[in-house]
Design a protein that fits this description.
Layout: E1 9-17, H1 19-29, H2 39-44, H3 54-63, H4 66-69, E2 75-82, E3 94-105, E4 109-118, E5 121-132
Antiparallel strand pairs: 1-3, 2-5, 3-4, 4-5
């Protein structure tokens, strides 16, 4: 069994997103809502700019754990609350930072809390992953 203690950081990374990434994700997911690639539409509906897809943010966040886990099949549960959008600037993009920290250790599983930020703002709240321990 892996020796884990509450508070251990088990994974972290920063992912740089560009507008091109958003277009590619739209193609892969089928989500072609123009708020994800058109500034004029985003502005017209009152958004601060073009937004990354919520599921893209959620997916890149959980992917941060996979190298540590060694097997994505060990993920038992995953849930988040979308708290703030990830605004992707047309020139500079956006950096999403994920820090995975042990919150609870049980006999055969652990809960890992993810802190997910962009521009020093938390973008996913209550991001929690329950994983099966080896």
């Amino acid at each position: 069994m892996i020796a884990l203690a509450v508070g251990d950081v088990v994974a972290e990374r920063t992912v740089h997103l560009t507008r091109e990434d958003l277009v590619r994700y739209a193609g892969a997911s089928g989500d072609f809502n123009p708020i994800h690639y058109r500034d004029d539409v985003a502005a017209r509906v009152g958004l601060p700019g073009v937004l990354a897809h919520g599921m893209l943010t959620m997916g890149l966040s959980i992917e941060t754990l996979v190298p540590w886990l060694g097997d994505a099949g060990r993920i038992l549960e995953y849930g988040v609350r979308f708290t703030r959008p990830v605004v992707v600037d047309p020139d500079t993009g956006a950096d999403v930072t994920v820090v995975a920290k042990v919150a609870v250790v049980d006999e055969d599983a652990a809960r890992i809390d993810l802190t997910v930020t962009c521009a020093d703002t938390t973008v996913l709240g209550k991001a929690q992953v329950r994983v099966r321990l080896p």
